[in-house]
């Protein structure tokens, strides 16, 4: 059991750090909750573990223009480097770079005592909050917070002020082929189009058609549905009539409980087989994922 992650929960590990990343203006600093101070720009250095490596020059120039007029409104979060008279930037490297372009000599900072794990966590959170982030990049940030720090989808949604379905839908995009994810990254395919392709064995092929034809999300959903429906010549005779009464009864019970069509097909040996659940919308899929994600003991008790 990972007691460290359980202890942190939404405490210092996420929600408290979010409060730091979300410092939102001059009044925030004078509230007494944390002290701001000015530090020379040359006393600061970037975090070598910063997830964001690409800082676009035109965006930095735009921010520098704003800083020249209004100054650095949101203070940087920094920590002191052991044995050195310099500070490492935990959050706010973009502001620091723009402040240099604006030829400022010092910037407002909040000095925090943070370990390496917390520094990385804040950097990921700040990266997720970028307005120019693609859906895939945001999903990768969510996955990092979940796998490295033990946060659940529910806790992430709460702390980041996003819906649970938003977090779940983005994470499902990471199940798509790499080529399709790259199309979402470069903007040639929207997140809505990509969601419609989840689960399709021809996702990459269909993505190319969507871009080439300029299909809408609705048209994409129809295309995926048509591709998933076997042609009459390829359809095999339904084995429903060959199923025994117990199997048909079990199908009916599962279908009633899930509110989705359930089909059970036994293999030739009668020991193995497959269970097929058909969903009609992404909302249905989300519900199904929640049911299947329940711990085994909860499913056994029938708590849900």
UniProtKB/TrEMBL annotation:
Entry keywords, A to Z: Chromosome partition, DNA-binding
Stretches the record annotates as Disordered: 21-52, 227-246
GO BP term, pick one: chromosome segregation
Keyword DNA-binding: yes
DNA-binding listed as a keyword: yes
GO cellular component: chromosome
Residues annotated as domain ParB-like N-terminal: 37-128
CDD domains: SPO0J_N
Gene Ontology MF, one: DNA binding
Superkingdom of origin organism: Bacteria
Biased composition (Basic and acidic residues): 232-246
Annotated InterPro entries: Chromosome_partition/occlusion, HTH_ParB/Spo0J, ParB/RepB/Spo0J, ParB/Sulfiredoxin_sf, ParB_dimer_C, ParB_N
UniProt family annotation: Belongs to the ParB family.
Function: Involved in chromosome partition. Localize to both poles of the predivisional cell following completion of DNA replication. Binds to the DNA origin of replication.
Protein name: ParB/RepB/Spo0J family partition protein
Annotated organism of origin: Tabrizicola piscis
Classification of source organism: Bacteria, Pseudomonadati, Pseudomonadota, Alphaproteobacteria, Rhodobacterales
């Amino acid at each position: 059991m990972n007691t460290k992650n359980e202890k942190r929960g939404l405490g210092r590990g996420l929600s408290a750090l979010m409060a730091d990343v979300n410092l939102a203006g001059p009044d925030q600093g004078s509230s007494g909750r944390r002290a701001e101070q000015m530090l020379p720009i040359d006393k600061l250095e970037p975090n070598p573990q910063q997830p964001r490596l690409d800082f676009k020059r035109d965006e930095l120039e735009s921010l520098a223009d704003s800083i020249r007029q209004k100054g650095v409104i949101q203070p940087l979060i920094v920590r002191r480097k052991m044995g050195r008279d310099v500070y490492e930037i935990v959050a706010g490297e973009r502001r620091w770079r723009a402040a240099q372009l604006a030829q400022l000599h010092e910037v407002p900072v909040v000095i925090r005592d943070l370990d390496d794990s917390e520094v990385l966590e804040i950097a990921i959170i700040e990266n997720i909050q970028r307005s120019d982030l693609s859906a895939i990049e945001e999903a990768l940030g969510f996955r990092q917070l979940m796998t490295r720090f033990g946060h659940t989808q529910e806790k992430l949604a709460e702390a980041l002020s996003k819906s649970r379905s938003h977090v779940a839908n983005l994470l499902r995009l990471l199940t798509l082929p790499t080529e399709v994810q790259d199309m979402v990254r470069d903007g040639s395919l929207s997140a809505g189009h990509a969601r419609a392709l989840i689960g399709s064995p021809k996702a990459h092929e269909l993505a190319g058609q969507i871009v080439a034809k300029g299909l809408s999300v609705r048209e994409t959903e129809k295309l995926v549905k048509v591709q998933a429906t076997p042609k009459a010549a390829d359809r095999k005779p339904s084995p429903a009539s060959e199923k025994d009464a117990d199997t048909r009864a079990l199908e009916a019970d599962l279908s009633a409980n899930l509110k989705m069509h359930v089909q059970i097909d036994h293999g030739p040996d009668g020991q193995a087989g497959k269970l097929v659940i058909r969903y009609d919308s992404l909302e249905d899929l989300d519900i199904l994922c929640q049911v299947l994600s329940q711990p085994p003991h909860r499913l056994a008790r029938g708590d849900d």
